Structure formats: structure tokens, C-alpha cells
Amino acid sequence: MSATKPLFIVVSAPSGCGKSTIIDMLLQEYHDLVYSISCTTRAPRGEEEDGIDYHFLDKSRFETLLSENAFIEWASVHGNYYGTLKAPIEEVLREGNSMIMDIDVQGAAKVRNYVRALPDGDPMKAGFADVFVMPPSMEELRSRLEGRGTDSREAIERRLANAEGEIARAGEYMYKIVNDELHVAYKRFCDLIDALSGRM
Fold first, then answer.
1. Each residue of 41-51: pLDDT tens digit?
2. Whole-prediction pTM
3. Check whether domain 8-36+97-197 has CATH 3.90.1150.10, yes or no
């Protein structure tokens, strides 16, 4: 496995497109693939655990890290900070493993800009790939969201409106994968990783 090129993969998708399912499947199959855990200052919810769902930090710690330019991207959302630390990604790549990050289109744009500014030859830049997972159609996305039975009608309409805005930015990504059938979309993702990492 160590002969393969370490990748830094950023994945975005509208809610209901199966992105989390695909990432979970990839993590089970590719043992050199590490999931990027974000930092947040919000309190844990439900069963969330520190170091698994998020790194839960207090505000002063987060602001100290901000002042040290420790994040490759960060945002303030509803009074809480969220961000992705640079050091864990660098460490994973240095060890010859790959990192996969699940992030929204705004965050992905910040990561993209950060990576572009890195010197050529930087492992993060050399292994960078961003992927947008698309629904086959808005109608199919609506039926998936309704089929989950977890959201109110208002929430579904909001998610669909957000999805249209996100899909409008899909052209910013290097690769697009349509999740029409899960096993087919997953295979496309595996083929992409194998090609980019030199596993073929």
C-alpha cells in the first residue's frame, strides 16, 4: 500500500445524495484512508464523542489556534466556530496515508484556495482532489429526502433550495460523480481513488 501516492480528497454533496454512506464504505475498504475530523466550539449533541465526531474545543482555545494560522479553513456558524486543522492532514500524508474530508461547498472553496497557495511539491497540493457527489435529478433527490421520513416538509424544501445552490457550484470541483445507484457511484469513486493514487 505504501507505494501509492497519498491523496487529500475533499468531498461535497447536497443533503440526501449518499455522500456519508459512500465515505463510510470507502473507509471500510481502504485501510490507508483517514477521515478528517473537524473542530468545533459547540457542545456535543446526543451520542457525539470528542475525537470521533468532532474535536470539541472551547472558544479561547479555538481563537488561539486561529491566531497561530493552524486551520486550513474555518467559519463561524450560529455563534460557534468550526474549522479543519492543518497538522493532522500533514501528518497523515507524511505517513503515506490518504485523508478524506466531508465539507460543504463554502468550506471546499476555502480549502481549494488554501491548497492553490501552497508551494508546488507540497504533499497536500500534490495529492489534492475534490469531488462533488450529484443526485441524478432534483425529483429523485426530493423522493429520497421524503423517503427518509426524518424531515418536516419545510426542512425538505429548505434542503432542496440549498441543493440547487450547491449543484450550481459543482463546476468548481475537479470531479463529479452522479449517485444514481449506490453501488455504481461507489465503484466510480473507487476507480477514481485507484487512478489518482496509482493503485491501478
1. 999 999 999 99
2. 0.92
3. no
